[in-house]
Amino acid sequence: MKNPNINRIHFLSVGYFIFKFLLLNLITLGTTFFLLILRNAFEQTEILIIRFPIEMFGIAFVLSNFIYVIGNLLEFVHTRFWNKPFIFKDNERRMFKMGIIMIAIVHSAGVIIYLINF
Q: Which residues touch 93 (CB under 8 Å, ≥6 apart)?
């Protein structure tokens, strides 16, 4: 007999995935704005001239989303291929942490490149 709550479980898993995906993108945007504020605070420019680091944001956005979405997809396919139980929250949590680490790496590299060129 099929579990009647299985559709609810899948719906909650998809909702949780979308929530974490949006949260990862908000973290990317927030850290980029934070670095923008720090840059404008320390650099001597006019107050109305704001240069958004679009390259750093774009690279962090693409790489963190790539790791999060493709990592979860490949983990799902791998567990289905080997008939292993798929524990969504554990795999998703690991990929979310990897996405956060990628954001930190990209923004750290951006700060180092900015300081070298300063």
A: none
DSSP code of residue 3:
-
**What is d(CA 35, CA 21) in angstroms, rounded to the nearest whole number?**
22
Helix (H) or strand (E) holding 16: helix 6-42
pTM of the entire predicted model: 0.81
pLDDT tens-digit series, residues 23-35: 999 999 999 999 8
Closest CA to 24 of 66, 64, 79, 67: 64
- Give the C-alpha distances (Å, rounded to integers) separating 98 from 12, 41, 66, 92: 22, 30, 11, 10
Q: Residue written as tokens 């990862």? A: 24
